[in-house]
């Protein structure tokens, strides 16, 4: 994780200079490019990467110089407590380079006459593994057609944002990879299966994180963003880029991949912003005069997944109010405003209409990780899980009960609007969900998968079995999509469902 200062002040004027120096010293691992992780003791006493393989003590001279320079700049003139409050940068030029985080979806991928959108719901690692598995199967379901290569845009929230963002920055096997992030089934499933809660808790105990947590605006969400960057969204050791471990930015997404919209909920108590949708796109960053291409992918994903109660809000600086006292945008989990991500799909369609971009055919696949059975099992005496000793997970059940009451209305409203977009034979909405499984025991297993940033082996097996049953060459919805690609129209209704 790179050292980033918030641009306003770091230390209070009344703070002792020693506190500033301590904070700077505790940033020493980042200053000398030490990405210390809890993977092994060896990484604690040696530098992580081969091209930085000298012992740590040989770097002390550089460290001392860095401490002096940073302490002088940080402690002499900055006067507020905004250190680590935000990391977004001001937009100085109207850059359009690699604006893949955008609602303006240009037909530059797959069939230029067909717009194909994937919408990934929230649901922690359950949603991450489910959405990733769907994407992997879309590549393989038809021997003569890679449906994933036809996808133009992905709208994702919370857990669904993990595979969406990873796919956007990755390359296919055998293709030159600057960042070393490969889209291959074994790699992807392993990454979506990791216990990020355990890794997150482990990262709490690094001295730099302890100091930042108590003396700056650095919080639990920042630590989880750092955890996701370390595992998913930095330059892997296998990449050609020499800056191993550097966090990847939104502007570094693969230009051959779909557009990606990562969604969050605005928690700012000003100008009726509270409860509104905020997206990590060029359009919404332009509203605060900030550069989306310079923003960390990991932080965007984490903002989308900052579930209230477990995580704090993510903060962005609103540069349009730079002449006044600093104003900020506070955002948290996008599932609170729309856990299905259909609002952003509608915004894509509206943006295309305004810009007179006319796709002749439109396909939307909603990949829904919703589970019907919440709460605690009747046979369980103690309602607490291991996580409940740190954070009460019943807040998740409480929120799910509220969101479930809203789901049907959101889906119904989207369907009514979607029917008007194109004639039925040239449009298709496919809602893929756990309830499509009609096998009783398997359905029960799926609906018992908890919402967390970890997933058990038995739950992964259940999702794999569901994929095998649903995403087959016999799936009538996938067949209709194939017909749209091959024959311009499909032989069915615009609203499609398939169960097995």
First-residue to last-residue Cα separation: 45 Å
Q: How does the helix and strand content classify structurally?
A: alpha/beta
Q: What kind of sheet is the major sheet?
A: 9 strands, mixed
Order of helices and strands: HHHHEHEHHHHHEEHHEEHHEHEHHHE
Tally of strands: 9
The best one-word shape is: globular
Mean of pLDDT = 81
Helical proportion? 25-40%
Q: Catalogue the unreliable spans.
A: 1-80
Strand content: 5-15%
What radius of gyration results from the CA coordinates?
23 Å
Helix tally equals 18
Keywords:
single chain, 500 residues, alpha/beta, globular, 9 strands, disordered N terminus
Please, could you describe this protein's structure?
- With 500 residues, the chain is an alpha/beta fold.
- 37% of the residues lie in helices and 10% in strands.
- It has helices at 17-25, 28-31, 42-45, 60-76, 124-140, 161-169, 185-193, 196-203, 207-215, 220-231, 282-286, 297-304, 335-338, 342-354, 394-418, 440-447, 457-470, 476-487, and strands spanning 114-120, 153-157, 259-266, 277-279, 314-317, 328-333, 361-368, 427-433, 495-496.
- Strands 1, 2, 3, 4, 5, 6, 7, 8 and 9 form a nine-stranded mixed β-sheet that branches.
- α5 (124-140) crosses α6 (161-169), α5 (124-140) packs parallel to α17 (457-470) and α8 (196-203) crosses α10.
- Residues 1-80 have low confidence and may be disordered.
Strands, helices and their partners?
Elements: H1 17-25, H2 28-31, H3 42-45, H4 60-76, E1 114-120, H5 124-140, E2 153-157, H6 161-169, H7 185-193, H8 196-203, H9 207-215, H10 220-231, E3 259-266, E4 277-279, H11 282-286, H12 297-304, E5 314-317, E6 328-333, H13 335-338, H14 342-354, E7 361-368, H15 394-418, E8 427-433, H16 440-447, H17 457-470, H18 476-487, E9 495-496
Parallel strand pairs: 1-2, 1-7, 2-3, 7-8, 8-9
Antiparallel strand pairs: 3-4, 3-6, 5-6
